[in-house]
Write the structure tokens for this entry.
Amino acid sequence: PEAITIQELANRMAERAVDVIKLLMKQGQMLKINDVIDADTAELIAEEMGHTVKRVSEADVEEGLFTEAEDEGGLKPRPPVVTIMGHVDHGKTSLLDALRNANVVAGEAGGITQHIGAYQVERNGQKVTFIDTPGHAAFTQMRARGAKATDIVILVVAADDGVKPQTKEAIAHAKAAGVPIIVAINKIDKPAADPNRVRTELLQDEIVVESMGGDVIEVEVSALKGTNLDKLVEMILLQAEVLELQANPDRTAEGIVIEAQLDKGRGPVATVLVQKGTLHVGDILVAGAEWARVRAMLDENGNQVKVAEPSKPVEVLGFQGTPEAGDRVAVVENEARAREIVDYRQRQKREKASVQFSGARGSLEQMMN
Ligand code: GTP
Ligand code: MG
């Protein structure tokens, strides 16, 4: 339910918190500045102090923010968004490097991917967006998010190592999200490679690949030697065709934050995957409890772009604060609207935190009685 701290209520009325506390005291309530009062009490206090009260609900604030109405009529094919998942060191980043002719692995600390990278690759005139997720157990949470923003999961399994705990986790995430899996049996160049063992082990998690009579596409690849990468891309595009992926590029943009951090020189930077519409430099957007006037957008090669269409991942500069991975993004009409939404969400966040705090104290009191 709705609740507010005394400090917050005072702030919103531009009154002193002590005056609020005094009023409450007159009504027989002994409370401190960070204590939480319910919405009805807050309303009474506000009215007694001569303010008019307007209760704003989430529905009011969020109205029209995410909409499907604009999609109609303008749907066009969009590139697939593919998340690469799998056990640590099975070659996720290497595979992505090979697909985009780059070398990210060499630049990583200890060869472990610490964050999610997003790239768009063009092969034979067709675009595919890849999201690289960390393979470390500590990042299960982020991987779960990776699966949400994705159309297809590439499950990388090293042929010399087989199905491992994080392979199983990735399968569970993909299944939970209802996302089709393509298995990339990697490292087939290795003498110890045993692709058939991988196929058999996958049966335990009810992944039956095509060569075993199932309907999960599998491709044997070597990220190191570049073997069968064209075939892998072909299979991705085939799968994408089946999914009939579409979005309207001619509407206000919506998307999701893939990763975000505070950059010393550039301020808050967020990698945003555009999912609907087209994002433009100069647009005003909200992402979770933060907003931005898009100052610049950079593609995966660090080049500035003016627009980003559906399935395009871009680094967005111009945020007031740092949003969180997984936050949904929506473009709004103007700065005032952005501030209204963000103010509301930040308040919600604070109030949630303080309600949880007082809830904990409540139960402590109960314990003592
Ligand atoms: P995390 O991000 O830590 O989960 O690892 P990753 O899955 O991204 O694996 P990464 O691409 O960093 O590769 C791990 C190691 O396997 C590196 O030393 C790669 O050079 C090696 N490797 C990747 N693909 C192949 C391959 O096809 N063949 C061989 N022989 N080695 C490979
Ligand atoms: Mg990696």
In short: The mean pLDDT is 86. Residues 335-368 form the longest helix (34 residues).
